[in-house]
């Protein structure tokens, strides 16, 4: 599972802070992972926004992503834990407002 938060709320064009708290099947926080985010819009012709998150405290991952256009974004998260298969999850940031 991948709980996520986005601030500010509602999101606006510009920089947003995304916080993730991934948990494993047993509900335990996933620590020491590398997490990469890619932001896409639902229409063609836009480059993806890509970042790597940091882990300021165990199990809490934070990244700042630039959302360059108003509308609906899809965020793909790749969670990499050493020695385990890579996990891919996605969530939406809908209705990003103009700057
Ligand atoms: Cu767009």
Which descriptors would you attach to this protein?
99 residues; mainly beta; 4-stranded antiparallel sheet; 8 strands; 0% helix; 60% strand; globular; binds copper (II) ion
Would you mind describing this structure in some detail?
There is one protein chain. The chain is 0% helix and 60% strand. The protein is globular and about 40 Å long. The termini are far apart. The strands form two sheets. The protein has a four-stranded antiparallel β-sheet with strand order 1-2-6-5, with no helix packed on it. 19% of the residues are buried. It is an all-beta fold and 99 residues long. It has no helices and eight strands. Strand 1 and strand 2 form a beta hairpin. The structure holds copper (II) ion. Copper (II) ion (CU) binds next to loops. Copper (II) ion binds next to loops.
Write the layout of secondary structure elements.
Elements: E1 2-7, E2 14-22, E3 34-41, E4 49-52, E5 54-57, E6 60-67, E7 71-80, E8 87-96
Antiparallel strand pairs: 1-2, 2-6, 3-4, 3-7, 5-6, 7-8
This protein binds copper (II) ion.
The site of copper (II) ion has 5 residues, from loops.
